[in-house]
Amino acid sequence: MLRLPRFRFYAPTSVKEAVRIKADAGPDGAFVAGGTDLYPNMKRRQQTPRVVIGLSRIPALGRLRFPSGGPRIGAGVSLSTLERDRRMRRGYPGLVHAIEEISTPPLRNMGTLGGNLLLDTRCNYYDQSFEWRRAIHFCMKKDGDVCWVAPGSPKCLAVQSADSVPVLVAMGARVRLVSSEGERELAAEDLYANDGIHYLTKRPDELLTEILLPPANGWRASYAKLRRRGAFDFPVLSVGAAVWSEGGTVAKARLVLGGVASAPIRLAAAEQVLAGRALDEDAIAEASRAAAEPARPMDNTDFSLHWRKEVTKSFVSAALRDLSAGEKRRG
To answer: Are strands 51-54 and 8-10 parallel, antiparallel or unpaired?
Structure first.
């Protein structure tokens, strides 16, 4: 049986108190909301904080508000709350669909949107028990010095595999970070770095407090996901898509790949293909071909990396057809 290591637990009731405790704990401290990622990692000794700061008693983190400028989702709002909310289902069906694809209902009851955004990167060589990892002399991400995905690589190639991230980046969502030194806001896209170890630009002392969505007008978003099992599985390839339409043509498009690198990947060439065109089969086929070129999956998850690259076209097509069908229904 895998057991948690010993740690001291704090349950602050305000953001200010939480960031103060983290500042005092330094690198030995970790925030936890639902715990669906951190606690399994602690059991496998991938993360071993001596101080754990629980966030579930902070009311501000659990608020879901709908001001005129767009929804403001507290980082501690549960995934199941978002998937059941009628306003979210009506205005943001693409994001709700991505959330519904996360894990299982019991874990979505525990997990939070903020936790999903900050999900640890994954790899077949890393997501194993301590004893298994010790048998291969560990890996670069934890306790070792070699990335077993590509032994000559100077950086860790663990994968960003959170379901909500590609569609949030495609939508142009923003996040708010707070520390004892103040607060800042940045685009969700800028929260990530393409490095399996240092995969966040968020400083360790900062607390993700809020996710800000754009108003639900003039655009649509969708999500497509490849996984080995039909449910309860991480993506090994995912696509978030959003389009802004004017007069029956695409004014702007944002396409994002997940599950193939340590950060979500913008498909700039495919976005340019769609701009100024109707979202018809010809445009979708051309954009899907353009999307496959920057898709360079690593050999660190299920399925062949070459096959995952090839089916990128199919999953981009599926995400765009979903948007096209939605436009026809609205028309």
So the answer is: parallel
β-strand 51-54 against 29-32: which pairing, if any? parallel
> Is the CB of residue 176 less than 8 Å from the CB of residue 183?
yes
pLDDT (tens digit per residue) in 32-78: 999 999 999 999 999 999 999 999 999 999 999 999 999 999 999 99
Full-model pTM? 0.94
Rounded CA gap, 152 and 161, in Å? 23
Distance between CA atoms of residues 85 and 96, nearest Å = 9
DSSP 154: S
Which runs of E-coded beta strand occur in the chain? 8-10, 29-32, 51-54, 64-65, 72-74, 174-179, 182-187, 207-212, 219-226, 237-246, 249-258, 265-266
Tokens linked to 101: 């694809």
Q: Can you list the pairs that 128-134 forms with residues at least 24 positions away whose Cβ atoms lie under 8 Å?
A: 128/44, 129/2, 129/44, 130/44, 130/45, 133/44
